[in-house]
Amino acid sequence: MATLEANKREDLRRSETRKLRTEGYVPAVLYGKKTDSTPVYVPSIAFTKTLRQVGWNGIIDLMVDDGSKHQVMVHDLQQDVIKGHNTHIDFFEVDMTSEMDADVAVNLVGEAPGESEGGVLSHMLYTVSVRALPREIPEQIDVDISELGINDSILVGDLTAGQNFAFSNEAEETIVSVLPPTDEEPETSEDDEEQEPELVDSKGEKEE
């Protein structure tokens, strides 16, 4: 299990939060069912390395500078999409003896034959809900699409649950399917568009 050091945040002013970020820290909050909400901050680089090591659903030993130790998961991570750095973290303290629900990423594996036949791959469910003990939550669910032809689908009910976890989604929910190719109308130029006939009177003169 990975370990990450954290410090309590006593000064919650916005200016102090900005200062922490410029100094290489990420403001965060620690909470849980039996844990009071506690503002903390962690080193940005160390957090990134830890998350890369354990994965999104991994367990982290959060060591706070008051001497307390908490087994947490990253419940929410806010990022600055322009500057590309983390701006705030929610650490959720888990009960290692109780099952919990977690969203797990769906990873499509292989190439669907239906695509090479002109079909359109439609990935509809990017995460599935899994119920398990915190240690047993998988990092991702691999879904093999190598036999998926046109009009074929893979539902949640088609997945095989692990030995230590179960899916919480409805079995009828579609994860991925290959849709048939759409018949598009050929583009027409202005010259091809139907033009109204010129009106000619009985004398053979054009009407204005």
From TrEMBL:
Keywords: Ribonucleoprotein, Ribosomal protein, RNA-binding, rRNA-binding. It comes from the Bacteria. Residues 100-181 form the Large ribosomal subunit protein bL25 beta domain. Residues 172-208 are annotated as: Disordered. Residues 182-199 have a biased composition (Acidic residues). One of its GO terms (biological process) is translation. Part of the 50S ribosomal subunit; part of the 5S rRNA/L5/L18/L25 subcomplex. Contacts the 5S rRNA. Binds to the 5S rRNA independently of L5 and L18. This is Large ribosomal subunit protein bL25. It comes from Salicibibacter cibi. The gene is rplY.
